[in-house]
Amino acid sequence: MIKHFLKRKRKPANFINKQLEAKLNADDSKTEEELSSNLTENFAAIKQTFLNCDDIIFRELTIGKENIACLLIYTQGLVDDKIINKSIMKSLMEICEMETKQVNIDVIQKTCIQIGDIKKFTAFKDMYEAILGGETVLLIDGVNKGLKMDSQGWPKRSVAEPVTEAVVKGPRDGFTESIVENTALVRRRIKTAKFKIENFTIGRVTKTSVMVSYIEGIVEIKLVDELKSRLNRIDVDSILESTYIEELIEDTPDTLFPQLENTERPDKVAASLLEGRIAVFVDGSPFVLLLPVSLIQQLHSSEDYYQRFPFATAVRWIRYLFAVFALLLPATYVALTTFHYELIPTSLLISIAGAREGVPFPSFVEALMMEVTFEALREAGVRLPRPVGQAVSIVGALVIGQSAVEAGIVSPAMVIVVALTGISSFAIPSFSLSFAIRILRFGMLILSAVLGFYGVLLGLLALLIHLASLRSFGVPYLTPLAPFNWQDIKDVLYRSPWWGMKTRPNLLGMNNNQRQKFNLKPRLPKTKF
Amino acid sequence: MRKWLGLLMFMLAFVSGCWGRTEVDQIGIVVGLGVDYITGDQPILLTAQVVNPGAMGKTQKPPTGSTGPFIVITSQGRTLFDAIRNFSRQYPRRLVFSHNKVVVMGKRFAERDLPEVLDFIERDREFRENIWMLVAEKSAKEVMQLELALESLPAIGLNIIMKEQLKNAFSIPIEFYQFSNQLKDEIGVSVTPLIKIENFEEIFNEQLKKLGDPIKESQYSIPEEMNIDRTAIFKDRKLIGSIGKNETRGLLWLKNKLKGGTVIISEEKENELSAFLEEGKVTFTPIVKDMQITMKIECKGEARINEVDVPHLNLLDKQVVQHLEEQIEKILTSRVKSVIEIAQKDLNADFIGFGQEIKNQKPKEWKKLKGDWEEIFPDVQSEINFDIKIKAVGLTTNPE
């Protein structure tokens, strides 16, 4: 039986079901037609397309002395009514008063409409995209072209403090669901023409706009090309969140470790761009993707750079320590109390043994039970409505922390271990990384219960080998520790003060390495003042 | 191939089983072990002090009737290992010896069967090399059963007492590896502290009664106490004798282990003065001429005056201080002399370390001497020179 499974060959990766592929492509062909000059014909065709789309508004009107028939099309709710009324309708009505000029499409485009972004188009496809993207379309009888005018104004969330990456000191603005605002938040921080934003439209159905941004002259241009080619490969029906993109472009899809960083913070995006990294904005998601990323970077918080450096260094070390705790604490506890008693100081061993007296389960089962309960509690806390969430966590803490101990099902030492592990996993700034570590913790727990520290060491070795083999867009995941780079240690073992941040990260910022003048360390002035 | 390897790894991890695994509440933590020699066909008697964690972990006192913080269990066997194995016949928990702090040897055992315990402890995986070695004046079982005031686990208390010796020495604590090494090397002599159990309650009450102040039965009686101020001397892997309190103090000087100690000077008949030795250092200079060896012993130390019961003594006067210094030196010299005498005359065991000094300083001569050291040692001449400086007289200057 096992032999059968082992021998069975995988389907090749480029296996494509041709029938399904043909079906997918069939939908797109119709809209390639061009506009005709007859308005009634166009109108009928559009009506046919937007059949049963009651939120599309068709406004027929006539302009000029010749009473030329026109058609205004827009989507209700996606446009700003003020723009339609004041800048478009009013201007068009006023054309009647202009006597000297012949009314034609160029005149309307250039002299009448009081809107910044106004373009001509000829294909139905462009028109539909414009209408559904919140633009207003003007068709004129007798002309085989149309005008699309920017009038977007849909309901949006205002810029708010990022939920997942709160800081004590530092900017408080976070990204929203609107891609235009998101790019603007970054553009406001980087006022140079070298800051490029390139637009891609991905998703057969959703037609989501995805923007790739980088700073020319700092970024490795091969990296940008690679990213673009990976984005162009994507052919899916929808992109609703940036994770869709993330999973479709990462180097190693079958690993627990995130190879792209998610952030809600415009300042973090700006800082990353200045290090030579690339940001990918996705419409509809407040999470911007940053790439490439290393393991160490995900243990850094943007606040590290806003606090003074001694404090930031200390906090960073606490974070490293707790990342190790999050991975190994329960495993270490189980290994110590079931295999290696000689490693525990005598008095501690006695109190642990005393606390465990009468606990019915082996400590591995106890640890597993508690860890799973903790994860469930955390998940429930996220899902529940906010006012209820608090009640759940109180009940959970009481039930697990106190009652279980009093009933003698769980030992108090284990409660401490699980609580400490829980805290540790929240000390990791990157949510995706902390998730990976949380899952690995269970593996370590099993290994330690079976083989003790020998098992933990085996697990750690396997983990190290795996991490060393990972790449994020070709950049080693353990950089700058492996391959080792002495220069980059300034941002790993300690957070160098800003006058010491002389160079950009080695692998990313090679093109434009120097960040600042070399003698910026403040000194007392020689002359008294 | 990779798949097979994966399967192999999986089996390695999960088929191997958990043979080494015991939950921490299923082990018996041994903190002290006593070894005695009794007659019969199972001559080794082991007494282990095992922690009762259930009673230790709780803050409240255990309900009456239940056992205290430790349990004393015994086992008998033909050899030491046999006796340790036999523990499992009578007690359900696996005994773990890796937290053992002390090994107390009964006097009879130390006189007879010592090499066995040395070899076993060295060979065994669980025993640590830094456990304290002690000798009981009578049986080790008695020591193991003794409760210690202020410390719930007597063996742990013993461990603390031994560590405390580094600051306030009154005997020479020795760890297993030192003990074993000293017995194995060419001189083959070592020392351990000797534990005597005394019932001070009885002694004191008796004395008070004599003076006319008898004490009624009190619920707070002083338990029997360990008295560790003598030293057991080992030679040829056997206990050969012991030295008393004052000789032990002299030995502390010679062993360079002096880290404090009181000296009481009788200035006049009933007026006394105590000085505390802060630190002492000794240097040996062996002079070897033909077969005659003279050992020059230079002792330097600092003292402070703790308690003066001599009226009108001017401690600020240099001459007075010098006189006191001489007094101290005299007492100390006599202590050191008596140790050397015992070592040379009574026991003929070089536990004071003359041989070691010659070996370190004059290795060439030592090569010639070491074969006959046992004959040469009693005739080694010694010149003792003390130099004590009184550095402080305390917060007040002169007594009223």
Characterise this structure.
The complex is a heterodimer of chains A (529) and B (400). Chain A is α+β, with helices and mostly antiparallel strands. Chain A has 17 helices and 12 strands. In chain A, α13 (363-383) packs across α15 and α13 runs antiparallel to α16 (431-451). Chain B is of the alpha/beta class and 400 residues long. The longest helix of chain B has 30 residues, at 318-347. Chain B is globular, with a radius of gyration of 26 Å. Chain A binds chain B through residues 2, 6, 337-339, 341-342, 346-347, 349-359, 362-363, 447, 449-452, 455, 458, and chain B through 3-4, 7, 13-14, 16, 18, 20-25, 27, 29, 31, 51, 53-58, 96, 98-99, 101, 126, 128, 153, 156.
Strand content of chain B: 25-35%
**By helix and strand content of chain A, what is the structural category?**
alpha+beta
- Major pleated sheet of chain A: 5 strands, antiparallel
Helical amount of chain B: 25-40%
User: What separation lies between the terminal Cα atoms of chain B?
Assistant: 95 Å
Could you tell me the radius of gyration of chain A in angstroms?
Answer: 30 Å
What is the CA-CA span between the terminal residues of chain A? 88 Å
What's the mean pLDDT score of chain A? 86
Number of strands of chain B: 13
What can be said about this structure in brief?
The complex is a heterodimer of chains A (529) and B (400). By secondary structure, chain A is of the alpha+beta class.
Layout of secondary structure:
The complex is a heterodimer of chains A (529) and B (400).
Chain A: H1 2-7, H2 18-26, H3 39-49, E1 56-63, E2 68-75, H4 81-94, H5 105-112, E3 118-121, H6 124-132, E4 135-140, E5 146-150, H7 179-187, E6 195-202, E7 208-215, H8 221-233, H9 242-249, E8 261-263, H10 266-274, E9 278-282, E10 288-291, H11 309-338, H12 346-356, H13 363-383, H14 386-406, H15 412-427, H16 431-451, H17 453-469, E11 471-472, E12 475-476
Chain B: H1 2-14, E1 27-37, E2 44-51, H2 53-57, E3 70-77, H3 80-90, E4 94-96, E5 102-105, H4 107-112, H5 114-123, E6 132-136, H6 140-145, H7 154-164, H8 176-184, E7 189-198, H9 200-211, E8 225-235, E9 238-243, H10 245-254, E10 261-266, E11 272-289, E12 292-308, H11 318-347, H12 354-361, H13 363-369, H14 373-376, E13 381-392
Parallel strand pairs in B: 1-4, 1-5, 5-6, 6-7, 12-13
Antiparallel strand pairs in B: 1-2, 2-3, 7-8, 8-9, 10-11, 11-12
Helix pairs in contact in B: 10-11, 12-13
